[in-house]
Recover the amino acids of this structure.
């Protein structure tokens, strides 16, 4: 059982917020999304599970500040000139404008919001649960992810030990050679561990279900996967060059084709079983329905071309629009705060 | 033997590109329900033999394989390890590398899911394993939060979930402290005695298992000799035997005692004389000093009001439970963990709160896996690197010779054998003659012969005027080689003095000989001297 909600519901919730943060440039709506993510983080994620993720948030905050400074120094457009640097200065020479700072702030706000959503979602997801809800065909990949995830803290410890040993040997400089003295032993140790883990997996029957006995691979599945990927790439290109609406619609059949391709792969594998499946409760239903409604309304408003979703401080800074419907829709995603139960203490140790 | 569950016939195996066989025409039979112990020096072929029992050799490792291995009716050559996993459960040395999920009960269910066992049966098996291994209280915990002993019990439970007929364990306690090791070995004894599970265990710590096994297989350079413990024990290197057995052999006891309990009967027949006088070494000047040090990590107090002086010429063993702050103590001296309060004085200079680079290589620090810090292609370059960092000239060949590595300077450290690699790591890290040596469990996972070699080296360095500080869980080692034992508990030093003061009158922090004789007797040499002094004239003395 997932500690709080079905892992798929958490993913749906996080996906809705992330997609919204990617679609929206309005600072009012972005701030609302950030506030919702922070509220869920504070209320639903126990402090023990937040530990370790704070580092990502701090790095994101630093990156956000750097983003604002970078934008201010390199984009010399807008009507609110604050100061003019000599034009002979490469890259940064020219007008430093309030418009560039505002644009940098909004971009950094979007980036920081995405990181906060990610660091709220990650402690609530468990790899094992995740592997169980994925299609069986991608199970080996998911287990590899799970192993890599479990390896990260040990990698950190190993890196610290190696670094300390080299410093104790008298190493003081920080050049490429010193980097080699850290990276080479780290890779060597990682390889040793990878071999042991591979042996352990083999000795416990990992992959036995994929060995023979399955139906042959279906050709239509490969065609479906290829077609889906192709359409998705075209849609991504269209969105990137600014033709979001038609290509966004075009992405839907691509996703369907990809899903068909992946699902179809399951028939080629012999069946593994699952130790437990999450019994969905009304809590899962509430969060899922709230998330779907919220996203549906945001998407409808987006396709309707709601001006309030956009914000462009060039050439002049104008106040962002207020879209009450979108604000109310996004407010629905605060549902986890209302329904997620506390995690019992013994699960947090 | 007709009821053999494991039959190894003329097994010969050579790793890819190896010039010599890892296993050389091995013949071995193990009866169903037996507890078999596999012994031998590191690199002798123990792990290869165990991996042949579930097909990892040759299916995973490749190489040239001859002869046959049949376990519970399945021939390993025809069945890969993933199929053999229904018959053979396998537990590895490193508890961290074999657990792959983020919850204990999921870990146990992992193999069952892979084999497509129905959820109903799966749930029953998971509950069963949680109870059998006594880990039901850990079911919702993440393996990363467990102690080493708990993790290995989870690994055993995971291996047993498929209801294998044989459980194979490759030095499962070598990375554990004595309490964790005892947890695992007690669980194995119970599984063997109560459930009749066939257990094949490779282990260096013979003192905890030798009295409980039915069969000992001694592996030496790929050849295997098997028999009952009493027939095999005389052929083993005495250093590898439990002290009580060493004593029995020295006294020509028949039968040779394998446990402390059996040793008591032997001891009763001898009169104990005065304990031998040990000449205490005279420590030199203070090299490092901690004064009233308080250390906290992430807001948790680890060390409190700790004062300690480390002097030239001393070998100091730092002991204590896991988490008692032993490693933190070393890192505090080095400056990696600045103290909240108190002073750290090194070579007469107050270096409290200063960056570790201030020592300029004057402290040699050997972490738990020293070979993990080597990065040059040639061992000699690794030593030159340390010498250059410490700003000293040195004769690389002479230094290598001191560690028994003559002529290996041009070899890649990873190409050396296990024992050579450990000594190479010590040689590389300690090159340049630092005056203070800090070693964090330097003998962990080593066989007895290697421990002796490493400790002899360190004693030699102490006699040259260096201060040697080693963190260890090994009481026998501390009793034999240390001049002083510092016992940590409850964030403080609870005892500090010669082994004869600190390691006596204790039920856990003491040696087998002290359990037998009491008083100040700690080692086999002490015991023999005391018996000799009594005038009892023990045979063999």
């Amino acid at each position: 059982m997932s500690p709080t909600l079905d892992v798929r519901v958490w993913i749906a919730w996080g996906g809705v917020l992330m997609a919204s943060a990617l679609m929206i440039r309005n600072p009012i709506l972005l701030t609302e999304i950030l506030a919702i993510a922070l509220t869920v983080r504070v209320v639903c994620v126990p402090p023990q599970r937040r530990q370790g993720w704070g580092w990502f948030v701090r790095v994101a905050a630093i990156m956000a500040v750097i983003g604002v400074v970078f934008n201010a120094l390199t984009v010399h457009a807008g009507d609110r000139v604050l100061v003019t640097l000599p034009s002979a200065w490469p890259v940064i020479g020219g007008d430093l404008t309030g418009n560039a700072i505002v644009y940098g702030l909004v971009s950094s706000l979007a980036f920081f919001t995405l990181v906060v959503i990610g660091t709220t979602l990650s402690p609530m997801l468990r790899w094992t649960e995740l592997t169980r809800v994925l299609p069986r065909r991608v199970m080996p990949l998911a287990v590899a992810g799970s192993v890599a995830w479990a390896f990260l803290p040990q990698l950190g410890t190993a890196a610290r030990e190696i670094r300390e040993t080299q410093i104790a040997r008298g190493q003081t400089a920080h050049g490429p050679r010193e980097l080699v003295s850290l990276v080479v032993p780290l890779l060597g140790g990682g390889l040793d561990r990878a071999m042991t883990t591979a042996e352990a997996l083999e000795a416990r029957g990992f992959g036995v279900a994929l060995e023979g006995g399955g139906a042959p691979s279906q050709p239509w599945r490969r065609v479906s996967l290829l077609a889906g990927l192709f359409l998705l790439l075209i849609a991504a290109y269209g969105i990137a060059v600014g033709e979001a609406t038609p290509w966004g619609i075009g992405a839907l059949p691509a996703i369907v084709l990809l899903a068909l391709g992946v699902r179809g792969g399951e028939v080629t594998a012999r069946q593994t079983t699952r130790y437990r499946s999450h019994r969905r409760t009304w809590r899962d239903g509430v969060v899922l329905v709230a998330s779907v409604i919220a996203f549906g309304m945001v998407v409808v408003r987006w396709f309707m071309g709601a001006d309030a979703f956009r914000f462009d401080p060039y050439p002049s800074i104008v106040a962002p629009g207020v879209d009450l419907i979108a604000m109310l829709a996004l407010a629905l995603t605060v549902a986890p705060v209302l329904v997620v139960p506390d995690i019992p203490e013994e699960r947090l140790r | 033997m007709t009821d053999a569950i494991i039959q190894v016939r003329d097994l010969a195996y050579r790793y890819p590109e190896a010039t010599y066989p890892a296993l050389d025409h091995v013949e071995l039979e193990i009866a169903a329900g037996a507890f078999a112990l596999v012994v031998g020096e590191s690199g002798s072929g123990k792990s290869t033999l165990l991996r042949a029992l579930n097909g990892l050799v040759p299916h995973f490792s490749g190489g040239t394989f001859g002869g046959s291995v049949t376990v519970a009716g399945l021939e390993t050559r025809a069945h890969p390890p993933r199929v053999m996993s229904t018959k053979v459960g396998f537990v590895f040395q490193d508890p961290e590398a074999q657990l792959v999920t983020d919850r204990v009960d999921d870990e146990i269910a992992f193999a069952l899911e892979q084999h497509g066992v129905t959820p109903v049966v799966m749930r029953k098996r998971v509950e069963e394993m949680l109870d059998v291994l006594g880990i039901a209280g850990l079911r919702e915990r993440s393996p990363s939060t467990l102690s080493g002993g708990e993790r290995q019990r989870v690994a055993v439970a995971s291996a047993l979930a498929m209801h294998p007929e044989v459980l194979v364990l490759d030095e499962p306690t070598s990375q554990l402290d004595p309490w964790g090791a005892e947890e695992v070995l007690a669980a194995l004894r119970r599984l063997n005695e109560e459930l009749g599970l066939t257990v094949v265990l490779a282990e260096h710590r013979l003192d905890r298992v030798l009295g409980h096994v039915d069969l000992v297989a001694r592996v030496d350079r790929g050849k295997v000799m098997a028999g009952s413990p009493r027939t095999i024990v005389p052929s083993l290197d005495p250093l590898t035997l439990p002290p009580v057995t060493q004593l029995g052999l020295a006294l020509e006891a028949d039968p040779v005692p394998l446990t402390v309990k059996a040793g008591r009967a032997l001891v009763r027949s001898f009169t104990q004389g005065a304990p031998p006088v040990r000449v205490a070494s005279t420590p030199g000047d203070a090299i490092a000093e901690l004064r009233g040090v308080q250390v906290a990590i992430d807001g948790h107090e680890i060390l409190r009001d700790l004062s300690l002086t480390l002097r030239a010429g001393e070998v100091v063993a730092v002991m204590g439970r896991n988490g008692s702050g032993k490693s933190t103590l070393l890192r505090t001296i080095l400056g990696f963990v600045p103290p909240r309060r108190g002073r750290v004085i090194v070579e007469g200079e107050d270096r409290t709160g200063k960056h570790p680079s201030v020592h300029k290589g004057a402290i040699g620090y050997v972490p738990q896996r020293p070979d993990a810090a080597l990065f040059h292609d040639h061992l000699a370059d690794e030593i030159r690197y340390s010498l250059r960092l410490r700003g000293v000239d040195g004769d690389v060949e002479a230094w290598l010779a001191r560690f028994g590595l003559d002529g290996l300077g041009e070899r890649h450290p990873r190409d050396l054998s296990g024992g050579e690699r450990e000594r190479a790591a010590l040689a590389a890290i300690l090159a340049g003659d630092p005056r203070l040596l800090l070693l964090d469990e330097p003998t962990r996972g080593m066989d007895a012969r290697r421990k002796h070699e490493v400790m002899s080296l360190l004693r030699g360095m102490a006699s040259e005027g260096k201060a040697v500080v080693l963190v260890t869980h090994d009481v026998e080692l501390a009793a034999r080689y240390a001049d002083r034992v510092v016992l940590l508990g409850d964030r403080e030093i609870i005892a500090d003095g010669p082994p004869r003061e600190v390691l006596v009158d204790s039920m856990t922090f003491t040696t087998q000989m002290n359990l037998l004789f009491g008083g100040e007797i700690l080692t086999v040499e002490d015991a023999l001297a005391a018996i000799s002094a009594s005038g009892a004239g023990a045979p063999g003395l």
Remarks:
- Chain A has one domain: 7-204+216-347.
